[in-house]
Design goal:
Structural class: alpha+beta
Cofactor: Mn(2+)
Pfam families: Glycos_transf_2, Ricin_B_lectin
Organism: Caenorhabditis briggsae
EC number: 2.4.1.-
CATH class of the largest domain: Alpha Beta
Number of strands: 25
Strand order of the largest sheet: 3-2-1-4-11
Number of helices: 15
Largest sheet: 5 strands, mixed
Shape: elongated
CATH topology of the largest domain: Spore Coat Polysaccharide Biosynthesis Protein SpsA, Chain A
Low-confidence stretches: none
Mean pLDDT: 94
Membrane topology: Single-pass type II membrane protein
Oligomer: single chain
Number of domains: 2
Helix content: 25-40%
CATH superfamily of the largest domain: Spore Coat Polysaccharide Biosynthesis Protein SpsA, Chain A
């Protein structure tokens, strides 16, 4: 070790995090003393989390065992001597010193050594000095082999993870973020489930580490992953039956249509057989939904294991710079997903994000050939069999704007209060706000925009926007000959009431009750 690196490392370790520190013990949050308040505020933007709080917490801080009693019992029954080993892959760019070191210590402290082949750290062209020589030296102390690779240029999470996967030797790849802390018993369930079925991807329960005080709060175990019409990952509540099943069996894995993407385990050979990551995607964003569609449609499965808890620092925004505008990068990645995997349902995405239709999204032939080679199922199969409770209807009659014949205004949910009437506004074209005017008349006779549906009551006294619930109050017919939208239980017609839409007695001659459904199928 050269003297400069030694001096740097000495300074970096001169914080409470590397000495005995009671702050944050047992997952508690940290209260910042008054004399550090200004420093706390000025340094928050470094990583968009409280760096000062992190530096007050030991890199070896204690955490409770967050598992349920059922999980502790089931975990004790796993024969770990016969399980394969995992290579843990962590990519980072300008990560804070104490958070990445705490990540490594938590893995080392709470993982059976014989289940970890190595930890592969991929530095995505950081410019912070602590992520160069000091990190290379510090990781030598761990019993687990830790390999650090410094990329010569900015590659983004997707390509950095691919680099890490190529280096990894273990039969299981376990992708983690660089600002996490694992808790007791986290590793065994993930490896065990992948070992039982090589076509299975398994993710942990993601606990929240506060970006303000680094306090732990356990993640809900009654959620599964889905997606929105703009292909963003979204958490969904389980329905009643699944909730009851979970209450009865708190150690059972939860089938999930999508995963959050930051943390998951997969068989190494299967990862490559299924096309790894889409190398045509840039930086990060959308890759988790793409791999979710691909795994399910091509014969695999995904689940969340309630007995595996990993804490993650959630931030309201990324502190890192992109060579291109962040939303452009994400939308481009999502457009690639839509074009390759969604068949005719890609129109849901492109209607919501019209700017994506004109994007240059790169060559798709390799990914389309992959889909053909793997003999993957249609996206309609995925919606019906895997994600039937997602907000995208597998059967629909129309998709697009609902335009009134009288004045050409469009039904709009933008800025409307839940439980209030839908608005009527100037029709928007080729703009992101167009998404508020995209509606689908579904096979279930809903008039739906994402998870919002038009609704009335038996008396037809009002028209309002509500969360879709499948009730008769949310079913409508469309008279193709006249253009009336008729509420099924009241028999009343949707009516233009100037700034809002309402329902009223049907009168064939009233232009206020004549509508065009954009994208209406024959």
């Amino acid at each position: 070790m050269d003297k400069n690196t030694a001096d740097q490392l000495k300074i970096l370790m001169d914080t409470p995090a590397f000495k005995y520190s009671p702050h944050g013990s047992n997952g508690d949050g940290v209260k910042i003393p008054d004399h550090l308040k200004n420093l706390e505020e000025s340094r928050f933007s470094e990583n968009n989390f409280n760096v000062v709080a992190s530096e007050m917490i030991s890199v070896n801080r204690t955490l409770p065992d967050y598992r349920s009693d059922a999980c502790r019992i089931s975990g004790g029954k796993i024969n770990t001597t016969e399980l394969p080993r995992a290579s843990i892959i962590i990519t980072f760019h300008n990560e804070a010193w104490t958070t990445i070191i705490r990540t490594l210590h938590s893995i080392s402290n709470r993982s059976p050594r014989h289940l970890i082949e190595e930890i592969v750290l991929v530095d995505d062209y950081s410019d912070k000095y602590w992520l160069k020589g000091p990190l290379d030296i510090y990781v030598r102390q761990f019993e687990i082999p830790v390999h650090v690779t410094h990329l010569p240029e900015r590659s983004g999470l997707i390509r950095a993870r691919l680099t890490g996967a190529k280096i990894a030797k273990g039969p299981i790849l376990l992708f983690l973020d660089s600002h996490i802390e694992v808790s007791e018993g986290w590793l065994e369930p993930l490896i065990s489930r992948v070992a039982d079925d090589r076509t299975r991807i398994v993710a942990p329960i993601i606990d929240n580490i506060s970006d303000e005080d680094f306090g732990f709060s356990t993640g809900r175990t009654d959620l599964w992953g889905g997606f929105s019409w703009i292909l963003s990952f979204k958490w969904f509540d389980m329905n009643g039956n699944d909730t009851q099943r979970l209450i009865a069996k708190k150690a059972e894995p939860i089938r999930t249509p999508t995963i959050a993407g930051g943390l998951f385990a997969i068989n190494r050979e299967y990862f490559y057989e299924m096309g790894a990551y889409d190398e045509g995607m840039e930086v990060w964003g959308g890759e988790n939904v793409e791999i979710s569609f691909r795994i399910w449609m091509c014969g695999g499965s995904m689940e969340i294991h309630p007995c595996s808890h990993v804490g993650h620092v959630f931030r309201t925004k990324t502190p890192y710079s992109f060579t291109k505008e962040v939303n452009f990068v994400i939308r481009r990645n999502q457009a690639r997903t839509a074009e390759v995997w969604m068949d005719e349902y890609k129109e849901f995405f492109f209607k919501m994000v019209p700017s994506a239709q004109k994007m240059e999204i790169g060559d798709l032939q390799e990914r389309k050939s992959l889909r053909e080679r793997l003999k993957c199922k249609p996206f309609k199969w995925y919606l019906k069999n895997v994600c039937s409770e997602c907000h995208m209807p597998s059967e629909y009659h129309s998709l697009g704007a609902i335009v009134n014949k009288l004045n050409g205004k469009c039904v709009d949910r933008g800025g409307r209060v839940l439980g209030g009437p839908p608005g009527l506004g100037t029709c928007i074209h080729s703009h992101e706000q167009q998404g508020n005017q995209v509606w689908s008349w579904t096979g279930n006779k809903e008039i739906r925009s994402q998870n919002f549906c038009l609704s009335s009551n038996k008396k037809g006294s009002e028209l309002k926007i509500e969360v879709c619930n499948g009730s008769e109050d949310q079913k409508f017919e469309f008279n193709r000959k006249i253009g009336n939208i008729i509420h099924q239980t009241s028999g009343k017609c949707m009516t233009n009431a100037e700034s809002v839409a309402t329902v009223d007695d049907c009168k064939n001659s009233r232009q206020e009750q004549v509508w065009d459904l954009e994208g209406l199928k024959k």
